[in-house]
Design a protein that fits this description.
Blueprint (H helix, E strand, L loop, with lengths): L1 H32 L7 E5 L8 E5 L8 E7 L6 E11 L11 E9 L7 E7 L12 E6 L6 E2 L4 E10 L1 E5 L12 E8 L7 E2 L7 E7 L7 H28 L1
Antiparallel strand pairs: 1-13, 2-10, 3-9, 3-11, 4-7, 4-8, 4-10, 4-13, 5-6, 5-9, 11-12
Length: 249
């Protein structure tokens, strides 16, 4: 009798432990899954308040670039969703206010085979709806939050292309830097709307890429596996208990 009571006590203790463990981990996973980064942060850039120097992106002049691309690399570890890109521009009026200036702002993959040339498009940003073309202004180009993910240890390009008009992109004194481990690689320019790029800085054209840290729910495969394991263990334990009851009967 003493041995049987001890076995029952162990079964009850084990079941309580499994139930408690399942509840704690489930609560933790659900809590982390619903938690995202507090706010957007600057991933990489070289913001400036200066009106000069500037680079003219002119669709008409053969001597001016039509496209400028900036290569950067993400760090290992934490990944981010893209939120927006800030460009300091002059002589630019948003498309919604006129029909002469057209600019395409994109994040593009790395080419792989050509170190000076961006690859395929990742995302195209939506331009601002208002602005003035008479002074240097920080224009914000946005994308849908929590949709475009920059993967760790990966090279990307910020591509700025003028398809109509003559737009001035203000330069900065400093090269791009990052507080979250992103690495600036190079500027490249193209005079034929992106067919051929040549490496070279163009006044360190000013930009800021903003992002939001990928929340736990997108990294939760391990948590899901743990929950599944606890569920199966609890189910197995209950089955063994039933089998033992049947044997005693």
């Amino acid at each position: 009798m003493l041995t049987i009571n001890k076995s029952k006590s162990q079964d009850i203790g084990s079941n309580k432990f499994l139930s408690y463990g399942f509840t704690v981990i489930a609560t933790s996973v659900l809590t982390l899954a619903s938690t995202s980064s507090a706010s957007a942060i600057s991933l990489i850039g070289n913001p400036t308040t200066n009106p000069t120097p500037l680079t003219n992106l002119d669709i008409a002049a053969n001597t001016n670039p039509k496209s400028i691309a900036i290569k950067f690399m993400t760090p290992s570890g934490l990944e981010y969703f893209l939120n927006s890109v800030v460009l300091r521009l002059n002589n630019y009026t948003p498309q919604s206010q006129q029909s002469t200036d057209t600019i395409a702002v994109k994040i593009r993959n790395d080419n792989g085979s050509d170190t000076n040339t961006p690859g395929t498009d990742v995302v195209t940003f939506t331009g601002p709806v208002t602005g003035s073309n008479t002074v240097a202004t920080d224009y914000i180009f946005t994308t849908t939050p929590n949709t475009t993910r920059l993967f760790a240890s990966t090279s990307y390009w910020l591509s700025v292309e003028v398809n109509a008009g003559n737009i001035s992109w203000i330069g900065a004194a400093a090269t791009p830097t990052s507080s979250v481990g992103y690495t600036f690689n190079q500027y490249s320019t193209s005079n034929d709307l992106g067919t051929v790029f040549t490496a070279g800085a163009t006044n360190n054209n000013s930009f800021v890429i903003d992002g939001t840290a990928v929340p736990f729910e997108f990294e939760a495969s391990g948590g899901v596996a743990i929950l599944g394991g606890l569920f199966l263990a609890n189910k197995f334990k209950n089955r063994k208990k039933v089998e033992k009851s049947d044997e005693q009967a």
